[in-house]
Amino acid sequence: MENPDPATVKTPTLEDVARVAGLSPMTVSRAINKPQVVRPATVARVMEAIQITGYIPNMLAGGLASKRSRLIAVVIPQINNSMFVDTVQAISDRLAGRGYHMLLCVTGYSPDSEASIVATILSRRPDGMILTGIHHSPELRKTILNIGLPVVEIWDLTPTPLDMLVGFSHEKVGTQLGHYCLQQGYLNLGLVWAGDRRARQRRKGLSDVMQGLPGSRIRGVNAPVPTSLDAGRQGLHQLLAQGDKFDAIICSSDTLAQGVIMEAEARGLSVPDQLAVIGFGDLAFAAANRPAITTVAIDRVKMGEDAAMLLANKIEGVMPAEAVVDLGFTMVVRDSG
User: Fold this and answer.
1) What UniProt keywords apply to this chain's record, in alphabetical order (predicted)?
2) Residues 115, 121: contact at Cβ < 8 Å?
């Protein structure tokens, strides 16, 4: 059977969907563009009719009519960094429930790259944007402030965000790690640490606590981003290569910590009896690892949910009671340290 001529194929319309669903075109349009104000059963009927007819909603046309694109740009440094996965999924889920669509953009850790990509995104007229971190190029800050686009920054903390913020203090995380090491009597520390700005803030907080204490010593090696098990193994290998002994190895991610534990076991070092290991992030595997990884827990899902809620509310005219949401963090003590 020959394929039909595309020029003769009738494109399904909103009216076709309405006829199949047994609803008015206005109700169908509302279910597509503002599902939150339509009964779930009605939305389900419309979605089923869309599948039957093959109708593709013209979100651009709907955006022109309402002066909204229903598009939210979410900007993250890396897509292959497990630290961001839960937050991005929570953002997507919560935005979808409010009738918005997520455009995911990956910038790396360069402010210049972020500025260039965001400029391209803005040409698509998103209704709002979620940015990772608070350190942006002057050009990007000026652009965002000039156009008045609703923005939520995540994964960091400052009293003066571009607009709104959901995050936590990385320096305070480092301070907490330092105090925990002192409580446990860990004075000779090895660091396996990524070099991104937020990781450096945590390292500074840790170093400030340990600095000048009698008998304390910190030696570190750099790890590439995104972090990996192999980088953790290589990190411990480098730290031990000079014959130094450590009370604990502190890592800038749970992934690195897991790699350090693997390398320690390969060398016959018992964790934590001979070497404590501490991570960051409380990733899904941390509790199930053997030994379970002592770490710092961040509520990454709530971060995404709160960011999406703040942004959607402001787009729809609801101003936040608090523009800055400090999620805090929790020290989770497990078997590794």
Assistant:
1) DNA-binding
2) no
- N residues, the chain: 337
Separation between Cα atoms, residue 237 and residue 65, nearest integer Å: 61
DSSP character for 107? -
Using DSSP's 3-state secondary structure scheme, residue 212 falls into coil
DSSP 231: H
Q: How far is CA 1 from the centre of its chain?
A: 49
Is residue 187 a contact partner of residue 255, using CB atoms and an 8 Å limit?
no
> Taking a C-beta distance cutoff of 8 angstroms, is the pair 134, 168 a contact?
no
The C-alpha atoms of residue 41 and residue 43 are separated, in whole angstroms, by 5
Pairing of strands 276-278, 248-251: parallel
Which tens digit of pLDDT belongs to each residue from 266-293?
A: 999 999 999 999 999 999 999 999 999 9
Give the C-alpha separation, 261 to 255, whole Å: 10
For 97, half-sphere exposure in the C-beta direction (CA atoms, 13 angstrom radius) is 10
Phi and psi at residue 218, to the nearest 5°? -130, 130
CA distances from residue 244 to 210, 241, 269, 322 in whole angstroms, order as listed? 18, 7, 14, 49
Is the pTM of the predicted complex or chain greater than 0.85? no
Quick check: 300 and 87 in contact, CB under 8 A?
yes
